[in-house]
Design goal:
By secondary structure, this protein is mainly α. It contains nine helices and no strands. α5 packs antiparallel against α6. It is elongated and about 65 Å long.
Length: about 170
């Protein structure tokens, strides 16, 4: 006998399967949800998580995150993972666009968004931008541990800038 689920029940089951390491079952359920309702944004979000973290299919993960964003741009859980992916893929313009959007969505952890942007800038040797992002992250941090971690990032930047300065010399 078949048990019929509502889309929301099936979604919750897919999330539980994912939490317990059953990515294949979760993937199947999420694809069934999308087949039944192609506008169910959260299913695209969780598919994006599976493609990004489990299957390492970054193109498909990007498609899923973008689709989720297009369907429901007020869904705060999306932004941290979407921005991580964009930074990982070094997609600067898209990262900047999504960062600005994320910083206007209630429920988004602004500290995480600024920190990811800072690490991305640091990786690309844009030290002034990285410092600015880390300072913004400090202003939005709510725990002492997060502030200390961000201050360590700024100290790391200082060290990198000093090393870069040591290699700069002028031609006379």
């Amino acid at each position: 006998m078949d048990i019929f689920y509502t889309i929301d029940e099936k979604y919750l089951q897919a999330v539980e399967e994912y939490k317990y390491g059953e990515s294949p079952k979760s993937l199947q359920l999420l694809n069934e949800i999308i087949a039944a309702d192609p506008t169910y944004a959260r299913a695209f979000f969780h598919l994006g998580l599976i493609y990004y973290y489990e299957l390492k299919d970054y193109q498909q993960a990007g498609y899923c995150f973008k689709t989720c964003n297009d369907l429901d741009d007020r869904f705060p859980d999306l932004y941290e993972h979407y921005i991580r992916l964009l930074a990982f893929l070094n997609l600067e313009r898209a990262l900047e666009t999504i960062k600005i959007k994320a910083l206007n969505i209630p429920g988004v952890d602004y500290t995480v968004i600024w920190e990811i942007a800072g690490k991305h800038a640091e990786k690309n040797k844009q030290f002034c931008l990285a410092r600015s992002c880390y300072q913004e992250a400090i202003l939005t941090a709510v725990t002492t541990k997060r502030v200390e971690d961000l201050e360590e990032s700024i100290q790391r930047l200082d060290g990198k800038e000093q090393r870069m300065a040591a290699f700069r010399y002028s031609v006379i």
